[in-house]
């Protein structure tokens, strides 16, 4: 089993642009169940059940998609929004570029970790560990540029990845680093 098969993607945040300008009041009427309260938040929130995602739509035409577990769901979500807006006679781009901003994933090293020893071994320039503040160790990986949160249980949360393969690279790197110093 490859490392990627053991990694669970929890959330993908992606962005796109659907137009130069959008009338959010008109969209709020067109998208049943949407939330638009401009005095509290400048964007319109719309939640989909399938795929289970949410989009934030802004007057500037920018759209953020969150909650997707894979890239297909991101694309499907954006396509659904485009379709619904076009049906409401709201002009939007046909096939906008979608940019992944962040992928959050979880991995289990299947071994308890001594975070104090790890903090000493991995070098203070890339590690933050203050157990009184937060129970995990923050490990900033240079290449790929991601942040790993390591917990005593052996669970690892990866954040900051833009591509799925970066998560796998980071997991392989941290495993090698920990094996090299005999901590797993």
Characterize this entry briefly.
This protein has 184 residues and is α+β, with helices and mostly antiparallel strands. The protein has five helices and nine strands; from the N terminus they run αβαβββαβαββββα.
Please provide a written account of the structure:
The chain is of the alpha+beta class. The protein has two domains: 14-100, TATA-Binding Protein, CATH 3.30.310; 109-180, TATA-Binding Protein. 29% of the residues lie in helices and 30% in strands. It has five helices and nine strands, in the order αβαβββαβαββββα. It has a nine-stranded antiparallel sheet with strand order 2-3-4-1-5-9-8-7-6. A hairpin with an 8-residue loop joins strand 6 (127-128) and strand 7 (137-141). The longest helix has 17 residues, at 71-87. The model has no long low-confidence stretch (mean pLDDT 94). Sequence repeats lie at residues 9-85, 100-178. General factor that plays a role in the activation of archaeal genes transcribed by RNA polymerase. Binds specifically to the TATA box promoter element which lies close to the position of transcription initiation. InterPro entries: TBP, TBP_archaea, TBP_CS, TBP_dom_sf. GO terms for molecular function: DNA binding; DNA-binding transcription factor activity. Belongs to the TBP family.
């Amino acid at each position: 089993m490859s490392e990627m098969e053991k990694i669970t993607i929890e959330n993908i945040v992606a962005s796109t642009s659907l137009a130069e300008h959008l009338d959010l009041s008109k969209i709020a009427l067109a998208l049943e169940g949407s939330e638009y309260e401009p005095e509290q938040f400048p964007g319109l929130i719309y939640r989909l059940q399938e795929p289970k995602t949410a989009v934030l739509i802004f007057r500037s035409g920018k759209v953020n998609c969150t909650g997707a577990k894979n890239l297909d769901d991101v694309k499907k979500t954006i396509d659904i929004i485009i379709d619904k807006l076009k049906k409401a006679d709201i002009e939007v781009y046909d096939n906008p570029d979608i940019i992944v901003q962040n992928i959050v994933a979880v991995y289990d090293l299947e071994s308890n970790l001594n975070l104090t020893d790890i903090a000493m071994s991995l070098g203070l320039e890339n590690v933050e560990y203050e157990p009184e503040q937060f129970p995990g160790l923050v490990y900033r990986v240079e290449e790929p540029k991601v942040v790993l949160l390591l917990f005593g249980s052996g669970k690892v949360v990866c954040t900051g990845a833009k591509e799925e393969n970066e998560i796998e690279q980071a997991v392989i790197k941290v495993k090698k680093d920990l094996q090299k110093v005999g901590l797993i």
